[in-house]
Design brief:
two-stranded antiparallel ribbon, alpha/beta, 317 residues
Length: 317
C-alpha cells in the first residue's frame, strides 16, 4: 500500500475534544482508554505505510504519546513534525471552558523546545504553531534568530502552520523572512480543502521555491459531510456522493484525494481519531481523480472570509 502522500495529524488522539461538527462519543471519558486508543491509531497508521506524523504540545498528550511510541519503532524512515506556541490547559476535561493558550514568546519557544527536542533523531520539522500578524512572531528577531540557530544546529526543516482568512498573506510574509541572508522557512502547514482553496493562488510559487506544503483540515472540520446545519452545501454533498460512488470510496477519500491531485502537496494530514476513520482515509491513496472531476470540485470553493467566519461558529466536540 502506497501512503506516501498521507500523514497523520495527532490532535484527535492527544486530547478528547477538537473543533468539529460531530461528537465522537457521549460515554464517560477515560484517560487510560484514550491513551490506549491513541497508540492503536499510531500503530495502525504505521502498518498502513504512513511515516509522517505531525504533533504539538497544544495537542494534549499527543507529543508525549508520539515520543514514547516512536522510540519503540526505531525506524529511521519515520518523520516527525512538531510545533511550538500553544499550551494545552484543559487537563483532559471534555467540559473545560478553555482548551489551549497561544503564546509566541521566546520564553515559550525555549520552554517547549526542551521537550520537543526529545523527538530527535526522528524530528525533521519544527514549526511555529499558527503564525499570525497579530502575535508579531514573524517580526520578532530574537525568535527568528533562535529558530535559525535550532535549524542549523539540528539540521531541521523550519516551518509555520497557518490559520485564518489571511493565510496567504501570512505565507507571503514568511517566504520573505531571512536570517543572515538565508530564507528561514522551508515548510508550510496550511488549511486547504474543497471549501477554502485560497492556497492554490500561491502554491505553484511555493513549489517553485522548493517549499514543502503540508495540508491540514482537508475535511473542513467535518463540513464536507451532509449536515442539516449547512443546507447551502447541498450541491457539494450531491457532487461528493456521486464521486464517492464512482470511485467506490467514502466522501472523506474524495476530499483527501482532491488535495493530493489539485495542489501537489508533500503530505495531506489525516486527522483520524480511530482505526476505522484511518482505514477510510487511506483509500485516498488507491486512486486518482479524473481531470473533469477535479475541475468540478474546484467549483465548490467559497471565499476565505466566509469559510473562516463559519469555522469560528463550530464548537469543540
Amino acid at each position: 500500500m502506497n501512503n506516501n502522500f498521507l500523514g497523520l495529524g495527532t490532535a484527535a488522539i492527544g486530547r478528547p475534544q477538537y473543533i468539529n461538527i460531530r461528537q465522537e462519543s457521549t460515554t464517560e471519558f477515560s484517560l487510560t482508554t484514550f491513551q490506549q486508543k491513541g497508540i492503536a491509531v499510531l500503530d495502525d497508521a504505521y502498518n498502513r505505510g504512513i511515516r509522517y506524523f505531525d504533533t504539538a504540545p497544544g495537542y494534549g498528550m499527543a507529543e508525549q504519546l508520539l515520543l514514547d511510541w516512536v522510540i519503540t519503532k526505531n525506524d529511521p524512515s519515520i518523520e516527525v513534525a512538531t510545533k511550538w506556541g500553544y499550551t494545552y490547559v484543559a487537563n483532559f476535561d471534555p467540559t473545560a471552558a478553555q482548551h489551549e493558550i497561544k503564546e509566541h514568546s521566546l520564553k515559550k519557544l525555549n520552554e517547549q523546545w526542551t521537550i520537543s527536542k526529545k523527538l530527535l533523531p526522528f524530528l525533521s520539522t519544527y514549526q511555529i504553531h499558527s503564525a499570525t500578524f497579530e502575535t508579531g512572531v514573524l517580526d520578532n528577531e530574537n525568535i527568528l534568530n533562535r529558530l535559525a540557530e535550532l535549524k542549523n544546529k539540528y539540521g531541521l526543516l523550519m516551518g509555520i502552520s497557518t490559520t485564518g482568512a489571511n493565510q496567504v498573506a501570512v505565507i507571503k510574509k514568511a517566504l520573505d523572512v531571512e536570517v543572515g541572508g538565508i530564507p528561514l522557512f522551508d515548510t508550510f502547514q496550511v488549511t486547504y480543502n474543497l471549501l477554502d482553496q485560497n492556497l492554490s493562488t500561491i502554491a505553484k510559487e511555493m513549489l517553485a521555491q522548493n517549499k514543502r506544503l503540508i495540508i491540514k483540515e482537508a475535511l473542513a472540520n467535518g463540513r464536507i459531510f451532509p449536515n442539516d446545519q449547512f443546507p447551502h452545501y447541498e450541491h457539494l454533498y450531491t457532487t461528493l456522493a456521486t464521486l464517492a460512488k464512482k470511485y467506490d470510496v467514502g466522501i472523506d477519500a474524495i476530499a483527501l484525494r482532491f488535495c493530493i491531485d489539485s495542489i501537489a502537496p508533500y503530505k495531506v494530514l489525516s486527522g483520524a481519531a480511530n482505526e476505522l476513520h484511518l482505514s477510510e482515509n487511506s483509500k485516498a491513496t488507491h486512486f486518482k481523480l479524473e481531470a473533469k472531476d477535479i475541475a468540478a470540485l474546484k467549483e465548490m470553493s467559497i471565499s476565505s472570509d466566509t469559510y473562516w467566519t463559519e469555522r469560528k461558529l463550530l464548537a469543540w466536540n
